[in-house]
Amino acid sequence: MSTLLPFIVVGATTGSVYGLAAMGLVLSYKTSGIFNFAHGAIATVAACVFYELHVLHGWPWPIAAVATVLVVGPVLGTALERLAFVLAAASSSMKIVATVGLLISIQALAVIRYGSVTRQLAQFLPTGAVHFAGVNVGVDQLIAAGISVAALVALTTFFRVSRLGLAMHAVVDDPDLLGLTGTAPARVRRTAWAIGSSFAAVSGILLAPTFGLDALLLTLLIVQAFGAAAIGGFSSLPLTFAGGIIVGIAASVATKYVATTPALGGIPPSVPFIVLFVVLLVSPKGRLPELGGQLRRRVVERRVAPPRQRAIGLAVLAVALLLVPHVVGTRLPIYTTGLVFVVLFLSLGLLVRTSNQVSLCQLGFAAVGGAAFSHLAHSVGLPWPIALVGAGLVTIPVGALIALPAIRLSGLYLALATLGFGILLERMAYASMFLFGRKGLRPAPRPSFASGDTAYYYVVLAAVLCAFAVVIAVERGRLGQLLRAMGDSPVALAAHGTNVNVTRLLVFCISAFLAGIGGALLGPLSGTVTASSFNSFQSLILLAVLAIMAAYSPGPITAAVAASASFVVLPAYFRSPTFSTWLQVVFGASAVLAAMAETGRLGRGDLTARLAARAERRRAASPVRARARAVTS
Amino acid sequence: MSGGLRATGLTVEFGGLVAVHDLTLDAPLGRVTGLIGPNGAGKSTTFNACSGLVRPTHGTVELLGHDVTRLAPAARAQRGLGRTFQRMELFDSLSVEQNVALGRTAHVAGSRVIGQLWASRREGIEIAEATEWALATCGIDGLRSRLAGGLTTGQRRLVELARVLAGPFRVLLLDEPSSGLDDHETERFAEILERVVTERGVAILLVEHDMALVHRVCDHVFVLDFGELIFEGTMAEVASSDVVRAAYLGTVEVA
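Above: the input entities. Below: the structure tokens describing the complete assembly.
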């Protein structure tokens, strides 16, 4: 026990910061029904602002910290509250897409400002150690824990004493009360978001010396926070705080045991994800409800072109793709990569576009497919096409395994499970022998009949056409019908006899299969399949890009082709190294806008609505004006 | 009486709140049974417990003589239980025809695992026939290619009814089907219910606020208040009951 104590103390202090962030997350989620995937990004923004003030401008750290929290918390909180209000009428997948879009925009902006190498921030809190309960504890850790506890106490007092706090507490316990508290709901929401963002900001500043200004690592704060919030059952704030401490201690204690077994080195940072999965697995359905589903969605009529027009469009597309190798010259590999990503986007589109679900680990599935292909084609020596299909088949049980615990809950938890899985896979499994091994790469041969670049392009094109056929068959067939119905009302579909969990699982498996094929096609392009091609954060960007294109495309194929063209092909035509990072900012922002546009509630910001209203006023006014002219003349 | 739907000793609690307490009711085949009571009396909760959306704390639900208390909603539907929703749950982005067809498709697809992926020719014919029958019976043939999301409340009620009628259900739970309908639509609605009961011999359990409609179509009525059964009997008995009048009808004009 005495040897464990230091780990427990360290874990508890870090965990209290997670707990702080988690309380902020729960507060905003419960009052608005929008689960903020960009919660960790707020922490990033705060860490960056603090860095600017403290390091670059030399402000003393207490002043810089207070200024940062007082500005970042309320400003971002207010902006996010407005966003959440508009998003309340969005579909569940677009709600997720919107905050994911925000996250990737902020991450890209941080990269533009500070470069892709993580800037370190020296510990600004007083260092040194005090002897406490037989352990040496860093003063900085004690201060961090003290600040977190103080925030918890302040919040609890606010809930007890102030009328607004009381109303907020009631809403956190039962969101349905928001309209009944006698306090203006908008004020409750705004304050909740401001507090939530301030808590995220504080945790961002406190964690910055540990993680550096690494937007990605801070982004993962969301997962730590989720683990904590889930332990607290998404309702009790003190329990949420305690959950944060539990997650922190578990991660810290794991480091002790893992230190003796290097092979398990990936475990400690993965503890939050493991907590996440366990919570998803064991929680009864009622304990993790999805909020904010009450509003009826605005119905958007899908613009479906007549069959002949669609057939012609498809034929034109096929001819254009056939001609590509003769037109693009040395850029051919880019186009081949683009085709591979068409498959990946198709796989994602089946979820996002057709069935209103979200996957945040599509590249994780692609990684499984890519590695499996290498095993089958190179190590086992199966014929190339069989290895390709085999790679897709191997991915199916992996997809089913991820989806099973979350699918019975709801779309939000599926998104969280996939986010957790994508990161977990990358950290723990990419380096294993099953996937890419220590070196992070494996041989991936081209088919013997198509070793040239042009020939391989046509092989990939053939695979893409097969993927088109699969997607069209699904969309046109019975599953497509059930998926569209499920997207509108899963309850009604179940009430008429279809087990919607099976429906969700089926489409998730088909999607994983296609993603696995996509991953398998990627490796042979360069001859090796590398772990770094399947960066888990890129999965989030894929989602944002696809969501934008799906919102403005007539069909699944157009959406996938457009998404791939803008994500893969477009950046290749711009030399500037920052172009793709700026593009990521644009993708993120566009995803937010697309989600807002879906609701039809863009309000004052919506240019087209404003123009239409003005034209309407003109029309109404013109007879009067005409008469007025007639009178004066 | 066997068959139909039977709930015995049904109790549903949400946290400390008892929404339904020790309710026993029976909706036999070939009849329309009413379930009435003021707002918040627990009618929709009873429906949700019968269809599997909430799990009762105590009590059992029997469907066509089988205990279905532990079955999920889809499994109950497979055994013959269909329902509509107070807040209509239509497939808003699909056409009326697709909505109605899905009432049958969902049942056929859910009957076996492969059913969600593969549609046989025979099933296609079965679905098309059921759809046409339901569209014609509810008189919404003319709306078939309209989007469900763009219809009026009255039309949406009829679409939801047609959808559940397209399924091969033996017991129908209809949750306030006439709210939002005008007199003409309500009249036609009553005709549809009577026709379905005589032609198909189904059991209908009807939650309804329109007392004229209840009076016209229901053979037997259960009255709930604060989650408790306070009265049961024919509509005439209900209308003359002092208990019911005190709890409910005192504030409503009886037609």
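Note for the figure: DSSP finds 24 helices and four strands in chain A.
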